[in-house]
């Protein structure tokens, strides 16, 4: 693993274990096994590191998503996959760090980005870019399904994309607090959503 990627992974881990403010550049350098000056060779400050951590997250989630979707051949399969994968979206740090590391963190990646975006406009804009990209990909899939007459043509693809994205984000948060939200609930969400899109 290259030094830059190692810094990003250690940065994520320490941000999630200690919080952004307590995870100092000196501590990150020590954990990586490099001098603090070497760390500044890769990132000019902690803010830039945090932005790059979010880019790294986006890249890794993109790779994960491509791998998950490689056998998908229809819109219905795609919709089913993204709805039943909500529990995995909830714990995205597992995808980035692996469960053996993520089990030892005190906050989730989503918690970290939400907290940091409240204080940092650049982080907020970065998260907004990621959300916009997600919604545009959903919209494109919906429009293609409409062109192929798989789902209704009388619904607005952009609005449905936001609804599906909201379901993914919202159900992920809810399932953190409600142990009764299980795989069957996500299957039911998929089936009801499909009914609305195809009737």
Protein described:
With 199 residues, the protein is an all-alpha fold. It has one domain (58-198): Tetracycline Repressor, domain 2 (Orthogonal Bundle). It is built from twelve helices and no strands. The chain has helices at 3-18, 25-32, 36-42, 46-69, 75-84, 86-90, 92-97, 99-102, 109-119, 121-147, 157-177, 183-198. Helix 1 packs across helix 4 (46-69). The longest helix has 27 residues, at 121-147. The mean pLDDT is 89.
Give a concise summary.
It is built from 12 helices and no strands.
* Structure summary, number of beta strands: 0
Overall CATH class = Mainly Alpha
Radius of gyration: 19 Å
- Major sheet size, sense and barrel closure: none
Helix percentage range:
over 70%
* SSE class: mainly alpha
Number of domains: 1
The end-to-end distance, rounded to whole angstroms, is: 50 Å
CATH architecture: Orthogonal Bundle
CATH superfamily: Tetracycline Repressor, domain 2
The run of helices and strands is HHHHHHHHHHHH
Shape field: elongated
CATH topology: Tetracycline Repressor, domain 2
Number of helices: 12
Uncertain residue ranges: none
Mean pLDDT: 89
Strand content: under 5%
């Amino acid at each position: 693993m290259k030094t830059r990627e190692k810094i990003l992974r250690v940065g994520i881990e320490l941000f999630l274990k200690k919080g952004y403010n307590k995870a100092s550049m000196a501590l990150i350098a020590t954990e990586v096994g490099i001098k603090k000056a070497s760390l500044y060779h890769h990132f000019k400050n902690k803010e830039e590191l945090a932005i790059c951590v979010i880019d790294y997250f986006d890249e890794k989630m993109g790779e994960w998503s491509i791998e998950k979707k490689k056998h998908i051949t229809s819109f219905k399969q795609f919709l089913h996959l993204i709805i039943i994968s909500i529990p995995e979206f909830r714990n995205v740090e597992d995808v980035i760090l692996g469960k053996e590391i993520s089990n030892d963190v005190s906050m989730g990646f989503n918690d970290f980005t939400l907290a940091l975006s409240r204080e940092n406009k650049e982080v907020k804009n970065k998260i907004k870019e990621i959300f916009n990209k997600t919604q545009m990909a959903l919209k494109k899939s919906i429009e293609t399904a409409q062109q192929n007459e798989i789902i209704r043509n009388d619904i607005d693809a952009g609005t449905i994309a936001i609804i599906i994205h909201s379901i993914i984000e919202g159900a992920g948060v809810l399932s953190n607090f409600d142990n009764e939200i299980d795989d069957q609930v996500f299957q039911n969400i998929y089936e009801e959503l499909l009914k609305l899109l195809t009737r």
